[in-house]
Design goal:
The chain contains 6 helices and 8 strands. It is an alpha/beta fold and about 240 residues long. The structure holds zinc ion (ZN).
């Protein structure tokens, strides 16, 4: 689960940093031109290419096909333009310590100060609440928030029966897609638990989360998605 507002992942100071990065990039580009003269239209083009210029979005759009969209409160995430402004190289696994509904509810609550991109239910349903473009406050560490996608799983860390087959399989498909999208290696260095985020005091997903099962499931899902269907070739089945 997420963290309180005062964690390093929370709001505050972010716009300064983004402007800083942007200014730095433009400064570097101007230096490369090697002259103090930088035509206005040139500058315009550079602005277009620099981070912070947002991709088009559609209300209700999801990044994972099959996910339902329920918007989190905008207080629980920060608008960004990933992976152009911040590269994504981690998937962070959480456990909600509550029901699916209660997780949706707290992520909609502006006072909560935290939310993840996705929630996976014990029945395998997936709800997306924050776009992958944006930085969700879920890791309690600003650097890790900026570089990761956060996935919550419905259940309690001390209840092994909460981690159902349906949940593992749905989550593995989701993580496989995220890894493919951003070219993230499917391994334990890049798919980590909240507990492994530097500086966190959270323990999720806990000792009952079965990494030895999960990582191969993600690999299988990635291979299935990458390889052609067993009946390769033109499909003639009517209504397929
Ligand atoms: Zn967590």
């Amino acid at each position: 689960m997420g963290e309180t507002t005062n964690d390093s992942g929370g709001p505050g100071g972010d716009s300064d940093r983004r402007i800083g990065r942007r200014a730095l990039l433009i400064g570097g580009a101007a230096a490369a031109v090697g002259t103090a003269v930088l035509a206005r239209d040139e500058l315009g083009r550079l602005w277009w290419r620099t981070p912070g210029v947002e991709k088009p979005r559609k209300e209700g759009e999801v990044d994972f096909r099959g996910a339902d969209w329920v918007a989190a409160s905008s207080a629980n995430w920060r608008r960004a333009d990933r992976p152009d402004d911040f590269g994504i190289d981690r998937v962070i696994i959480h456990v909600t310590q509550g029901s699916f509904r209660s997780a949706v509810k707290v992520f909609q609550d502006p006072g909560h100060g935290a939310a993840a991109h996705y929630i996976v239910g014990q029945d395998g349903r997936i709800t997306q609440m924050i776009r992958e473009l944006d930085v969700a406050f879920h890791a309690g560490n600003r650097d890790f928030n900026e570089r990761s996608v956060g996935i919550e799983h419905e259940g309690f860390v001390d209840r092994p029966e909460d981690f159902t087959d349906a949940m593992y399989e749905a989550s593995a498909r989701l993580t496989a897609r995220i890894c493919a999208r951003y070219d993230i290696p499917v391994d334990r260095e890049h798919i980590i638990g909240h507990v492994e985020v530097p500086g966190t005091d959270h323990t999720d997903p806990g000792p009952h989360w079965d990494w030895k099962r999960y990582i191969p499931l993600v690999r299988e899902a990635a291979e299935r998605a990458a390889s052609p269907t067993p009946t390769a070739g033109p499909t003639r089945t009517a209504g397929a």
